[in-house]
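FAQ: What does the model actually see?

It sees only this:
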Amino acid sequence: MKLMRGRFLIGTGVVLAAVLWLAFTGFDEGKAYYRTVEELREEGAANAGKRLKVGGSVEAGSIVWKEDGLHFRLTQNEAALPVRYLGESPVPDTFKDGSQAVVEGTVGSDGTLEAVKIQAKCASKYEAEYGDESSGAGDSRS
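And it is asked to produce this:
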């Protein structure tokens, strides 16, 4: 009986250790800090190797497909960030010149963001401006 109880405790300990290890590594993998393009440029090389999410506008004319992935630049005001998309998921249909995008990946030593995920925001033509009378969403008071 003691032998069976000992095996049960060892088995439980192994399973618990495995679950904790998976939870810890999964948490670390999913953790990404959000930055804007300007913040990333101001911080310089301090972010090299860190997993980040970066938001900005896709620079017009910068989207180029090459053998090693999709290359483009995210911009915000005067700051620009070169990005190389290495992900396996298809690029969203809304990913175009001038669209707003959030990319997730790590910054290489050359300053290029090696992205594994791309999220493109919906085009602004689908969003009504606040107070826009023509959309019927504005304030109807005179």
